[in-house]
Amino acid sequence: MDTDTLKQLVLNASHLHVFGYGSLLWKTDFKYDSKQVGFIKNYVRRFDLGNSTHRGTEKVPGRVAHIEESQGSKAWGVAFKISGKADIMKALSYLNNRECELGGYTTLVTEFHPREQPSQTITVLCYTATQNNKFYLGPTSYKNMAKQVVSARGKAGTNVEYVTKIADYVKFYIPEDQDEHLFELDYEIRFLVKQKRLSANNKLIEDHELHIQTLMEPVQAS
């Protein structure tokens, strides 16, 4: 969906819901009224998309989350409710730059199922990528992925921080989400960091309990 089409979609809308499943979970950076945990159907979270700005460079790209189609699956995350035309347009401008221009994502509209009332669906906007994306790295072993993640750093910080904070958020706030792909990658990253004794990243693991505390904000129902 291009930016102009997206703007037309929300032109007369009083509110907009944005679905976050990656770093938007813990680094939202736009104004929203409320948020609620839930899932979208027939998608799964993967880390096959490369990134050369926020969490990597062109020489050493990081791996970031995207969703891909998988019939019968669920991708868990959070729907953020944004109200008012001004705040909606401001959020879309920010997200278009963060996710599309710098991240290589595209947009799609789908139905979100709230955890408390899964039958009461909400239309959400979400950001994703396909195999046709120029940044697409493709799947590989968890060990290889972990090596790439541990080596990568971009303007926003380390790729280690990116993945482990997503895993922390999901474990703490969305225990229903038994995302083996995320947790297996998280395990291999932490194991490799400890093994290599990388001081900067060891600090992230040593401060794990403190790090969890920073995520302890209420998840509200809209």
Automatic annotation (TrEMBL):
Keywords: Lyase. GO terms for molecular function: glutathione specific gamma-glutamylcyclotransferase activity. It is an enzyme of class 4 (lyase). Signal peptide: none annotated. The keyword Lyase applies. One of its GO terms (cellular component) is cytoplasm. One of its GO terms (biological process) is glutathione catabolic process. The keyword Lyase applies. Belongs to the gamma-glutamylcyclotransferase family. ChaC subfamily. This is glutathione-specific gamma-glutamylcyclotransferase. It comes from Lottia gigantea.
